[in-house]
């Protein structure tokens, strides 16, 4: 594990905020990547080594997270049949997803940020369920700000020294 963490540190020292942007963009688009770990370590890296500010980290994380979710939303919305096949959704459940996102979409998108598996699929599912675009943007950005800020700040706290050991 020590060797992998050393490589992770070197990766962040070399690429900085670009590493955060790429990891969060891809995770929020739907790839199972370690978004929380990236933000925790970026917060720690900020405190230990500097190189960027907390505001820059939060803005970068929110932009990447939103761009990833927006791309997933667009795929779900405009390539609905492809997205349904990708997720192996059964035709008998199509109306359930539509109804669910009509009634619970905003809250789901907001809180999906804090649930790893759901965060990866939220944008795609919202697009498939034809969630209203304005609601999607409002709740997705709000959730991204809360998630990125809280995880980044947690990584920057002094108690996050466990990351270095």
List the helices and strands and how they pair.
Layout (H helix, E strand, L loop, with lengths): L1 H14 L1 H13 L5 H15 L4 H25 L1 H7 L7 H19 L3 H13 L4 H24 L9
Describe the structure.
The chain has 165 residues and is mostly helical. The protein is built from eight helices and no strands. Helix 4 packs antiparallel against helix 8. The termini are close together.
Summarize the structure.
This protein has helices at 2-15, 17-29, 35-49, 54-78, 80-86, 94-112, 116-128, 133-156.
The helix count comes to 8
Radius of gyration: 17 Å
Contiguous uncertain segments of 5+ residues: none
Structural class assignment: mainly alpha
Strand proportion: under 5%
Which features characterize this protein?
165 residues, mainly alpha, 8 helices, 0% strand, elongated
